[in-house]
Write a structure and sequence with these properties.
The protein is an alpha/beta fold and 165 residues long. It has three helices and eight strands. Strands 1-4-5-8 form a four-stranded parallel beta sheet, sandwiched between helices. A four-stranded antiparallel beta sheet has the order 3-2-7-6. The protein starts with 6 loop residues before the first strand and ends with a helix.
């Protein structure tokens, strides 16, 4: 049979999305009950989001790729996998977006985003402004005209990730 040597989870230039998505994907790699993120509201109350499912890749070696374009829910996912010592992270420091905004629109067409909560890693660290620091830093800027079909070995971050298995 075919044996998977490892999985590379590429979160580069992923601006994040729904928190639920990060928690769901984390569940593929972390056991049920493991905390993925803690949401702390302005009044100091905290809500923990934990894995609620049985993933299929709980034991597969894992490397996560991040760069300065990895933000928000992507950082939550990378941070949770790092804090639970489930993955090594390769690439460059991520963006550092760890707050939850609520948009308010006014009758005159103007609006404001009010920060209502902050996201903390399982370790308790606030992602905001700090980002995720990789275990292995590899600086790489893709060529502006590089196509997706280019030889993957020219992608220095991906190449380094694969070498870790």
């Amino acid at each position: 049979g075919f044996k998977i040597q490892g999985v590379v989870l590429d979160l580069r230039n992923n601006p994040g999305g729904y928190l639920e998505g990060a928690v769901y994907v984390a569940g593929e790699f972390l056991a049920p009950g493991k905390i993925v993120v803690v949401q702390e509201s302005g009044d100091g109350s905290k809500r923990e989001d934990s894995v609620k499912r049985n993933g299929r890749l709980l034991k597969v070696p894992l490397v996560v790729l991040v760069n300065k374009g990895s933000a928000s829910a992507a950082e939550i996912l990378a941070g949770a996998l790092l804090d639970h010592k489930r993955a090594k992270v390769v690439g460059e420091k991520s963006f550092g977006k760890g707050s939850v905004q609520q948009p308010e629109d006014f009758a005159d067409g103007s609006g404001v985003h009010i920060t209502v909560a902050r996201w903390l890693r399982p370790s308790g660290e606030w992602i905001d402004k700090k980002g995720i620091t990789p275990d292995v830093e590899v600086k790489w800027e893709p060529d502006a005209n590089a196509s997706d079909s280019a030889d993957w070995k020219s992608d220095l971050q991906l190449k380094r990730a694969v070498e870790m298995f």
